[in-house]
Design goal:
Radius of gyration: 15 Å
Shape: globular
Number of helices: 4
CATH topology: Nucleotidyltransferase, domain 5
Number of domains: 1
Structural class: alpha/beta
Helix content: 25-40%
Length: about 140
C-alpha cells in the first residue's frame, strides 16, 4: 500500500448492528461490512491492526455516544469525528441497488419501492466516510 495514502474508518452505530467501513483517503473502499454491535470493540481493534486508520468517522445517530465511549475504552488515542447522518439510509438503499441490481420481475419495479433484502448499514458507513473525506479533502 502506498505509504502516503492514509486511511479512515467509518461507523454507523446501531443498537443490534453497525455498519463499518475502511476507506483510503482517495475514497476507495478497502473494507465494508455489517457487524454485530456486541462485537464492536473487537471489530474496530482488528480493523485498526489491519489498516492503521488515523481517524474513525461516526454517524451521529441515537446510539453514537455509547459506541464512542466503548471504542475509546479499547483505543483511547484514536481520533473520533462525528458526522451528520442526515438522509444516509436513503442514499445507502440507492447505493445497494446500484451494487446489486434487481433481477427477474423485481427489475420491473422502481427500486425506490423496494426494500433491500439485507441490512444496508455498511453502505451507510461508506457514505459517512465519503462525506467526511469531502469535507476534509484539503487536509
Amino acid at each position: 500500500m502506498d505509504v502516503k495514502q492514509r486511511t479512515i474508518a467509518a461507523l454507523d452505530p446501531g443498537r443490534d448492528k453497525c455498519g463499518f467501513a475502511v476507506l483510503r483517503q482517495d475514497g476507495r473502499v478497502l473494507m465494508q461490512r455489517v457487524i454485530e454491535t456486541q462485537r464492536l470493540e473487537a471489530e474496530v481493534q482488528q480493523a485498526q491492526a489491519d489498516f492503521s486508520f488515523e481517524v474513525l468517522v461516526e454517524g451521529n445517530g441515537t446510539t453514537s455516544k455509547a459506541a464512542r465511549s466503548r471504542i475509546r475504552e479499547v483505543l483511547p488515542d484514536l481520533r473520533i469525528e462525528v458526522v451528520d447522518e442526515y438522509r444516509t439510509t436513503d442514499m445507502a438503499k440507492k447505493a445497494y441497488w446500484q451494487a446489486n441490481p434487481p433481477h427477474g420481475w423485481r427489475r420491473l419495479l422502481p427500486v425506490t419501492m423496494q426494500v433491500p433484502p439485507v441490512p444496508v448499514d455498511d453502505f451507510v458507513a461508506v457514505i459517512l466516510g465519503h462525506r467526511y473525506l469531502e469535507e476534509h479533502h484539503h487536509e
